[in-house]
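stuck on this one:
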Amino acid sequence: MAVINQLWSLSSIILVSLITVNSLRFRGEPNTYAKFPVWNACINASISFEFKTTQSNGLFLYTDNNGRYDFFEVALKDGSVQLRLNVVDEQDGSVEIVLGNNLNDNRWHSVVVKRKHFETILQVDDTSSSKVAFGSDSGFGDRRKNNFVYFGGVPLGYARDSRRSPLDETVTDAKFEGDLRNILYFNCTCIPERASVLNYQGVSREPRETCEINNRCPADCPCVSVEGDSGCECKYKESCIAGKTYLIIN
């Protein structure tokens, strides 16, 4: 399976349980969204998740710096993954990457977004593409002021300054219908954290992911769900021990 081959180093997996794995199921209703904590999108941070859907269009995730210039959006558009990122109040700070085809095949696919200073990398399953955006600032907003991360859609009436934001209306229109799991934040550290949902609408959490039911992994080996099982992913720990200062997923 491509998802397992990409994200896991099988020699480092510690099996945890045999409970059937499930996920967040988004119903694609007008007010569908799942609210997650603020992501510290620094110059060496990453974020990853897995999805499964039959829909050709839908919003995976969106966040911004509360209506100013910086925004970050990942969506499914015509069966491909589209990444849009703006990090400065200048045109040369914008990034757009489209990757993959026919990903609405009701199979699990992995998405990883990596930041390396001015470079942004999008990885979908085993394929990656990157773009460099040079501007006055490579950082994304201010962690103390940035908004929450919304998966599957944003709440109705989501407040942003449309006069100052380059974001178009697709962010509020394209509600996701399908499944998401294994949402991992890399908050400027070499060890990822499982992000926990804070609030949601139009989303089913039952039955819950195996890692949410029975997570026996140590703090330095995050729990990752797969079909029919779960495991502790410890390859990031090995990178940290090797002395790497920030995460690079190969």
Remarks:
- The first helix runs from residue 2 to 7.
- The helical segments are 2-7, 170-173, 210-213, 235-241.
